[in-house]
Specification:
9 strands, 2 domains, 344 residues, Nitrilase/N-carbamoyl-D-aminoacid amidohydrolase, alpha/beta, six-stranded mixed beta sheet, three-stranded mixed beta sheet, globular
Length: 344
């Protein structure tokens, strides 16, 4: 029988540059989650400081992160809840965001490229971690699913400014539509559960919240609104993921290198395919040249019923052999380049 996990998504009104106050609020919600028997509690991205990279006090506020990490580890040991620090206070995995949000992050942050997205072992099974804009890239999800992850955690600080002014003119609710659509789609594409935790804010403000636990077939098991500061708890029955996989066989296709294999970015395999295409082309041309040599050597003389004279044959063969020799050289070069190409 598949296990059932209680999962809490915590949606904060993150106070700018007030890590102590934000930590106290987060700890209160985590204690509440533990009291409700939750196995996992997820907080938003930048939940201790908010995101103000141009503020002169921002760097100093971020410098105390190790202090708060230790505080979370102590809290995890006390409450036996994972954050994803395990219930014994061990950090089970870490991740550096790869896909930075261009308009505001790339000037100030370094991407986690070229490290792989790796699932890590937890008491809830294999879990993957993505952050904010990572969720827009299906390839990141595929790496985690290939590593066995069935639960993908996505802390984020997603705001209305994620849509341009032009986009908001088309639909003022475009950011919410984006999140709800993509999160649900990812559950179907990967037969996984998504735990998405975002910051909330005052009504009509920039923060859009929508923290949720989402699964295939059902959609959100729980979902907070845009303004709420609070916590939502979902019971995640892992059987629904088994049923979805039996239905769609996404993981099975990945494991056996089925149709999905062709969409992976496998440069070496692509180069080998090109090599064989090139070799096939050269083999075809060499065959044509060889047939032309035979045809010329066996061609009857227009002035006689006999075959061409020995001297004429040699001249024709020499002319044709020059073409043949050129193609042989090209073939050897192609083979050499094709063999070296995957390593270059």
């Amino acid at each position: 029988m598949a296990p059932v996990y209680r999962i809490a998504v915590i949606q904060l009104h993150v106070k700018p540059l007030q890590p102590a106050r934000n930590f106290a609020t987060a700890a209160r919600f985590i204690r509440n989650a533990a009291a409700q028997g939750c196995h996992l509690a997820v907080l938003p991205e930048f939940h201790l400081t908010n995101w103000l990279p141009t503020d002169p006090h921002f760097e100093a506020a971020c410098a105390s992160w190790e202090t708060y990490l230790e505080s979370y580890k102590i809290l995890a040991r006390e409450l036996s809840i994972s954050c994803f620090i395990s219930s014994d206070g061990t950090v089970l995995g870490s991740y550096v965001k790869k896909n930075l949000w261009g308009p505001t992050e790339r000037e100030f942050l370094s991407s986690g490229h070229p490290t792989l997205n790796q699932a890590f072992d937890t008491p809830l099974g294999k879990v993957g971690l993505l952050i904010c804009w990572d969720l827009a890239f299906p390839e990141a999800w595929r790496e985690l699913i290939a590593g066995g992850a069935k639960i993908i955690i996505v802390p984020t600080l997603w705001t209305r400014s994620g849509a341009s002014a032009q986009g908001l003119k088309w639909n003022p609710s475009a950011p919410a539509l984006f999140l709800d659509s993509v999160l649900t789609a990812r559950t179907y594409e990967n037969t996984c559960a998504v735990v998405f935790s975002n910051a909330g804010g005052r009504p009509g403000g920039d923060y859009i919240g929508l923290s949720q636990v989402t699964v295939p077939y059902v959609g959100p098991l729980c979902r907070l609104g845009s303004a709420a500061e609070g916590m939502a708890v979902a019971e995640l029955d892992m059987q629904i993921l088994e049923d979805a996989e039996q239905n769609y066989a996404i993981r099975a296709d990945l494991e056996r290198g089925g149709p999905l294999e062709g969409y992976r970015s496998n440069t070496s395999r692509d180069k080998i395919d090109v090599m064989w295409m090139s070799l096939s082309s050269y083999t075809f041309h060499l065959t044509v040249i060889a047939l032309e040599v035979f045809r010329r050597l066996s061609q009857p003389s227009p002035h006689s019923s006999h075959f061409l004279s020995y001297k004429t044959r040699i001249n024709l063969l020499t002319n044709t052999s020059a073409d043949l020799q050129a193609f042989v050289y090209l073939l050897l070069v192609a083979v050499l380049l094709s063999l070296l190409w995957p390593f270059g």
